[in-house]
Structure formats: structure tokens, C-alpha cells
């Protein structure tokens, strides 16, 4: 079982338009932290909003496609090819999949995307 760590959201609005960055320091969000994450998210975000999702794992192109399908299945919309970027690193061992600029309507929908993405055993981290 992968390490179970909590995700946090941080936002700094002073001097610029506020943007939220979701951070996970390895592992996956545990079920115990879901309510805590939603409460924090509701303090710093308003919906609907446009945001991105990033997943890091093994599996190359297969992982890229799986993460796109995961996001599309929750949001019920097609993700245009230009909004998906990936980068292979650590000598080809890992791939980072970045799905940019998708509209979400609630913190529960964001959590549903993360829950769907983490069902894949190849995924090691998400941001």
C-alpha cells in the first residue's frame, strides 16, 4: 500500500489575482483527509473555476491516456489534446501528466477527479 499523506491547498492573494495550488508531498490523499481537504478548499476557492491536474507515475503513454480518461469520466467532457502535456523523467522510469485548464464546478468534483486518478496502481503522486 502506498504511503498515505494529506493533501493541502494554499493560496496567496496579496498583490495578485489569487490562484490555488494543490500540493501533495508524495503518496495519496487518505479517505480520512477528504473532509479536511474540502473544508480548506472551500475557504480558498470559489466555483466554478478553471484549474489543472497533475499526476506522476509509471507507465509512459498508457498512464497519460489513463489520466485523461479519468478526468474526462468525472467532468463528462472531452479534454482537448493541446491541454495535455507530459514529461518523462528519472531515466524513463516516471512520467508526469499535466492536464491544464479544465472547468470544475465544485470541490467535490475536484475530489472525485483525484479519487478516480488514484485508483490506478501506477500513479505514485498527484498535485
UniProtKB/TrEMBL annotation:
Pfam family, one: DUF493
InterPro entries for this protein: UPF0250_YbeD-like (IPR007454), YbeD-like_sf (IPR027471)
Protein name: Uncharacterized protein
Organism annotation: Abeliophyllum distichum
